[in-house]
Amino acid sequence: MSSLQTPMRIRLPSKEWFSSDTAILLYIAAGKFLLHMLVSNQYGYFRDELYYLAASRRLDFGYVDFPPLIALIAALVRVSLGTFLPALRLLPALAGAGVVFLTGRMARLFGAGRYAQALAALCAFAAPVFLGINSLLTMDSFEQLFWVLALYLLVRILRGDDPRLWLGLGLVAGISLNDKISFLYLGLSLAVGLLISTARTHLRRWQLWAGGGIALACFAPYVVWNVVHGLPTVEFWGNYGLKLKPLGPFEYLLQQIVIMHPFTLPVWLSGLVLFFLPEGKRFRPLGWMYLVLLAVFTLQGAKIYFLAPFYPVLLAAGGGPCGAALCPAVPWLGPAGRACRDRTRRLAIRPSRHAAPAARGGDPLPSRDKPVRQYQFGGGRQRRPTAKPRRPVRLGRVGGHVCGVLQPAGG
Question: What is the largest CA-CA distance in the chain?
Answer without folding.
Answer: 101
